[in-house]
Structures are given as structure tokens and as C-alpha cells.
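Progress against Task 2.4 (sequence-to-structure conversion) is shown through the following example record, which the project officer requested during the mid-term review.
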Amino acid sequence: MPESAADRVSKPVSAYVGIGSNLDGPVDRVGRAIEQLDAMTGCRVLDRSPLYRSAPMGPSDQPDFVNAVARLQVTLAPRDLLAELLAIEAAHGRIRGGTRWGPRTLDLDLLIYSNLTIDEPGLEIPHPGLTSRNFVVYPLLRIAPDLVMPDGRKLADIASALSLEGLGELGNHMAIEAHSS
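C-alpha cells generated for the chain above:
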């Protein structure tokens, strides 16, 4: 099978990860997930957004979500990074295959990886829901106000077209000190 863009990386690149939780202490879970991202081999958290509270996107009979976005510097290939994100979710008790958009202990979405566009089985970058979800776009805008999507659209223009309904900033913004890798 030929190697794809999802299987290689030659130098450190930026990646953005969406983080969400609405079960079992979501504020603490989001914080621990950011610490775990920073501790991964081949990954350093460069910045994180403030925390946001958002109404659930799916079934309304669940708690609100706590969301954030982290900017990473990675040497992991996109597929390897995704595998690490799924492992962190599993360590937090995330069980996939339940109710679509239902409650979850932790959700980590690979939103953007460098300026790549990847559409392969099991890996789609940019994340397909990125531009339609205010709980992703607004936190991302806080840490990357000049970001241009791989298709050339400015993130600020995408944000201006999205409602803030159901979204509120919780604050708790802090830069993550880089660990030595």
C-alpha cells in the first residue's frame, strides 16, 4: 500500500485538537487531557484556549459540555497523532459506538494538521464538523485569530457566520509551559 500524507512527517508542524467533556468532572478532564497531550512523545502543547461551556449538539437530555482547543507542535504523522488521541480518550473511559453526539467522558478531535487536507478512511482533515461548530470555531479563534483554513478561508470569516447561541466562555485561560522533549 503506498504511503500517504497521513503516514509521514519530516519536521515539526502545528496541529489543533478540539477537546470536550460533559461527564465525570468535565473541567478537570479537559485539563488532564491537555496535560496528557503535552506529555506525549513527539507532541508539545504550545497554547490552549479558554474553557467554554456549550449546549449539547445531540440529545438535549445530557449535561452541557466543557470545550477547549489546544495548539500543538508535533512530529507525529497525522495517523499516529490520531491513534494517540484515541488512546487518551480510552484511558478516560470513552466508549465509542454509543449514542451519536451523546454524553462522553472525553472527546478529542484532530481539527487541523499543518495545512494538509486528508480524506482517507478513518481520517479526515480538516475535521468535517470544524467550520459548523461554534464550540470549536470560537475557542480556535482565541488562539489562532489569523488562521487560514487549508481551503483558503479565514477562520475569522467562518466565525462571523456562526451564532454564539448556547456558547459561553468559562475562562481559565493559561498557556502551557513547554516540556522538554
